[in-house]
Amino acid sequence: MLLVLQIATLAPLQKKFTVLKSQLELKTYDLSLFEGQAEQSEHHKVSMPLPNRFSIARIAVNLVLQNHGLNSEQVLLSCIIA
Fold first, then answer.
1. 11-41 burial, b if ≥16 CB within 10 A, otherwise e?
2. What is the DSSP code string of the chain?
3. Is the dihedral of CA 55, 74, 77, 64 positive or negative?
4. How far apart are CA 14 and CA 6, in angstroms?
5. Is the CB of residue 65 less than 8 Å from the CB of residue 75?
6. d(CA 57, CA 59)
7. What is the spatial distance between Cα 10 and Cα 82, in angstroms, rounded to a whole number?
8. 10-residue block means of pLDDT along the chain (82 residues)?
9. How far apart are CA 23 and CA 29, in angstroms?
10. 54 phi and psi, to 5 degrees?
């Protein structure tokens, strides 16, 4: 009789344990998927080609021109006229 009573008190705990265990397994799986996506994204960033020197120089010239309130067309036109 005592054994039956102990089993009856442990049965809900066992059910709760199995539910929590399955939730943990799902969360672990989700985390591993997320981690894999993050690694792929990081690998993709590393493998992206760096901009070439021409594009960097062009960006630098555009920044200098913007600081002086000019655009590349104005500078080009002044060079053609002069």
1. eeeeeeeeeeeeeeeeeeeeeeeeeeeeeee
2. -HHHHHHHHHHHHHHHHHHHHHHHHHHHHHHHHHHHHHHHHHHHHHHSPPPPHHHHHHHHHHHHHHHTT--HHHHHHHHHH-
3. negative
4. 12
5. yes
6. 5
7. 94
8. 84 88 90 85 65 70 76 66 61
9. 10
10. -60, -45
pTM of the model: 0.45
Q: Where are the domains of the chain?
A: 1-48, 50-82
- For 42, phi then psi, to 5°, come to -65, -40
CB distance 34 to 27 below 8 Å: no
